[in-house]
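#lab-general

N.A. 3:47 PM
ok so I finally got the sequence cleaned up, no stray characters, all 136 residues accounted for. can someone with queue access submit it? mine expired

B.Y. 3:52 PM
send it over

N.A. 3:53 PM
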Amino acid sequence: MKKNHNIYTFFTEIKPKYLNLAPKEQKQVIEGKKLKKALTNKAKTSYITYTKTKTELDSNNFSEALENQNDDLIKLDGIGPYIEQRLNDIGIYNYEQVSKLNNEDIHKITELIDFFPGRIERDNWVEKAQLFKINT
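B.Y. 4:20 PM
back already:
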């Protein structure tokens, strides 16, 4: 009799509750997938927009250099290993290049390396690079 009672309980109490939960769970899974797809599409759109509108540095103003023509840019105030790497990533390797930067270049570099606006001017990178260039 106890087995029959357990089966009866399962079919009359437990199973209906479980079946009621299933559609809710399915709905949450479907909504989660829709949200994930929407976020993925938004990220793709943002990336495409960024790559089409991102700033490009014109090296004609300060000349191009090769990686093997690098100076220790960390000697300039405000440049640590991370900023030096970011500068190298955009093609700035030596004091010669930094010493020739104009205001437009500085603005673009600040944007490209995600650095604090005004920092290059405050720390006088251009003037100090000119001094280091003369002394090397």
